[in-house]
Design brief:
With about 725 residues, this protein is mostly helical. The chain contains 33 helices and 9 strands.
Length: about 725
Amino acid sequence: MPALLWSGTGRTRGWLGYLGAVGLGAGALALASLWTSGAWATGIGAAVTTLSGLLAERLAPGDPPGAGAAELLRTPAGRIPRLRQVDRPELAGAHPAETPGAAPAYIERDAAPRLRAALAGGGFVLVVGESTAGKSRLAYEVTRARHPRHAFVRPLSRAALPEAVRIAARRRRAVLWLDDLEDYLGAGGLTAAQLATLSRTLVVATMRVQEYRRYDAREESRLTGSDRDAWRAQRDLLQRATVLRLARHWSPEERRRAAAHQADPRIGAALRAGERFGIAEVLAAGPELRASWENAWAPGTNPRGAAVVAAAVDCRRAGLRRPVSREWLRALHAPYLAARGGGDLQPEPFAAAMDWACACAYATSGLLIGNHGQGYTAFDYLLNAPGPEPVPDHLWRGLLARVEPVDAYDMGLVAHQEGRLPRAVEALTRAHRGGVPGAELPLAIAVGDSGRPRRAAADLAGIVRRREDRLGPRHRDTLAARHQLAFFTGEAGDDRAAAARFAELAADTEAVLGPDHPDTLATRHQLAYFTGEAGDGRGAARRLERLLADRLRVQGPRHPQTLATRRSLIWYRATEPAEAGRQLAVLLADAEGLLGPDDPHTLAVRSSLAALAARSGRAAEATGAWAALAADRTRVLGAEHPHTVYARLEWARALIAEGRADEARALLARVLDAAGRVLEPGHRHLRTARELAATVPAPAGSGFVVREAEPEPP
């Protein structure tokens, strides 16, 4: 069997040469394979630090790794291998095992029969699971056994994807291998058009469940005001796949199969670890590596190494889809170290920190994966820590200043989805100015969501005109832009014009996509909302009643948008306050159970409850509710998010109603200071703040109008 390597330009290096160069066993042991998918698998166990720097094209120190690269996995002769030649799972992206030695035996997972059936059907197959669940090993073993003569076309970066698609489409029998599919989505990534050219090609992919969840209904509800082209295109692409889910924890039957191999000390130790962790998770040393990272902050151990790992982890969390150079890590880690104590921690030299982070205490797994030439990425298991703090500003700004426009696009979409709107605007602006296709619409949406709806509406009007001229008024891309234009027209203060636009759009969307399409239902929701905001509450309620019946039929009672329609219907329906409060309380319990306490829809229900208390004259209750909501929105969305500003304004209104003028005045001053920095002049929140400030100290019950000012996501 010929040895395999990966290559980008004409220079190729064979494994035998590498092993001779590094002298023996350490390199050979690096080939030990395991059952889990890699974070950014560089084709041959990039976690191996003994081979660091040998497997990649050389880049000058400080150059962004992978820029313009087009690497594919190839044989030493430069050919695309057949699957039978790919005789090591790490070549398919599997993590190496915790300890060196011969590869652990493959133990069949319960999902294997389903995967075989999916492969028999051809097309696009996606294995989804947590880090170190065993996705890549399962996919590799089953696919290789079934299609040993198929060409194994594996791009090793997003830049290499077009060439990989071209090669795969020309082969009569080929597998396009996309380990960590999330790295191949976004600008320059896999498209439906490319997928259509692969009618004879089997596309096999893996994806971490945390990334896959970005495209489910719950995550869609987080896109406050966003119906982004890019997100929709990626979601639609994923919906074309046959999806198999792989559990991290092994079933009793899987553990019985593993017990037959417990003579291997690694498998035996994994079985003895009990059921807290999955077997593959233990073999990959995931829990041990995380503990090693946490312990390294202690003075005199490896605090600089821990800071380097923290920077690499946050680069991934910020949306960077490729490795980070050594020089970038040198610059980006310093604030993490300083925040923990700096010199008082007795940090080791940077070179020693990098050696520790890459090798740690294990011969074939490290906290950082990669090498000097191609850069480093954090072991994906580290991204699974529960409840992490937001990516700090110093990392965000330091990273954005260094990345390419296509990376800024990815970072902008992640920031927008997480509600970090100023970051989204900053990153998408850089992407748009850098000529990234498709950045124009998400940038306009982020601008509007961040508090500049008039600017967004003006930009979107231009986008709509250009799309109508190029594609026609009823093309799906044009409909998406028209939807956003209508939404931000209303957010800019013209509710009647927004309702008129949505009425026209609803007819066109239904004609093109059908009455039950999610976009049609979303358009009907916005039509009802702006109908109500324009003064026709009864008309809004009638529309929402019909919409709720259709959502229940099409999407079911647990769908986030069904909950959103219930909320709006309760608000606009002419119901006694006590009954409306009861219905909202039931809805809040449903939202917290289905979506969690910090989901935007859950927070919106709490907003309606607080507004209802104010409207009913229960000023003290309203004050407490708005104060708590403002605190939670500040924590989740930040102090300058328009929804946070709105909650703080209503908190001030409730304080005024209670006669607590001094507290209200101080709060309004803080709101005006924060909101004035981000909201465009004339924004309705700024007008409200000034109007309220002018009334202080107004007595309770002075006639303030409570506006339900939080539209549902379009």
